[in-house]
Amino acid sequence: MKLTITIMVIVVLVVFAIAGYVILRYRRRPGDKSIPVQVEGNHKLEIIWTVIPIVLLIIIGIPTVNSVFGLAKDYTKDPNAIQINVTAHQYWWEFEYPKLGVKTAQELLIPEGTIISVEAKTADVLHSFWIPSLAGKTDTNPGGNVNTMYFKADHTGVFLGKCAELCGPSHSLMDFKVKVVDKASFDRWVAAMKNPVALPQDQEVADLLNKQCLSCHAIGGNGGPAFPNLTGIGGRQTVAGILVNTDDPKYKNEGTVEHNLEKWISDPQAVKPGTLMPKVDLTQDQVKAIAKYLAGLKLDY
Ligand SMILES: [Cu+2]
Questions:
Q1: Bridge partners, residue 87, by sequence
Q2: Which of 123, 148, 182 is the last residue of a domain?
């Protein structure tokens, strides 16, 4: 981009300078009725203004074509890249780290300065995987098609991800986060994700969770493929990708992870119309107890 813009700016400056000079220097003066010297068919001039652009376009073209093909480089077999299988669902994102034996949802945790190699597919309709500040869009196409892409984050931080293809009523709520951490934290996270997680002390809550929730969700270990793995949910940036968790006292009890979990569990359809998580028949106290337990599921990393 820099090379292309530099060359084009130089061309513009030279052309406009010559044009300006010629317009001023050779303008028709009062009383001048003569015909200027005619230069059409001047071979020397025509060769000059054909060859110069050709040379400039070659200088721009070679690195451009190189970079464009470089963007599609395949890192899926690269042992130094981190492989991630991204599966889009209506309306959530599943992230599997096949080499590391870890699966998570809604929050993609990656180490800084490392190539992340993505194989993207969909479980249902057409979606598009997009992290605007890190990489271009990659569609996830129905019909078993897998699209590959890669990206790299140079700094730690949290980046917003979006679904960029209209996929149903909650398309605009199909957000996710990319959390970039240092390499040591990433390794600790991978280890923590595999630790077994204790069910709630309260037997009644444990039974509820087992019966009503763990038929779909997994907590601890490498959970089933079809639904979000809830390991570490209490420490994530969001609930369901869209309810942003915050401890900022400005939001009082409005945005804590516990509050967001209560809001989600008591009526998922109210948060994301059309979501495939059903409204489970629970009393307010049961919802509170489950939310409290899930909010406590934090990973040290
Ligand atoms: Cu989508």
A1: 94, 121
A2: 182
Confidence of residue 249 (pLDDT cuts 50, 70, 90): confident
C-alpha span between 199 and 209 (Å, rounded) = 8
Q: Let me know whether 240 and 160 are in one domain.
A: no
**Ligand 1 centre from 247 Cα, in Å?**
29
5 falls in which pLDDT band (50, 70, 90)?
Answer: very high
pTM of this prediction? 0.85
Residue 288 CA, ligand 1 centroid: distance in Å: 30
- List the CATH number of the domain containing 141: 2.60.40.420
User: 14 alpha carbon to ligand 1 midpoint, in Å?
Assistant: 49
Q: Are 163 and 123 in contact (CB under 8 A)?
A: no
Range of the domain at 266: 203-295
- Our CA dihedral for 204, 216, 244, 291, rounded to 10 degrees, sits at 0
The CA 253 to ligand 1 mean position distance, Å, reads 30
Q: What is the pLDDT of residues 36-73, one digit of tens each?
A: 888 888 899 899 999 999 999 999 999 999 998 988 89
The answer to the question of residue 123 being in a domain is yes
Residue 301 falls within a domain, yes or no? Answer: no
Distance 197 CA to ligand 1 centre (A): 30
Report residue 138's pLDDT band, with 50, 70 and 90 as the boundaries: very high
Distances (CA, A) of 52 to 10, 55, 57: 13, 5, 9
Same structural domain for residues 242 and 288?
yes
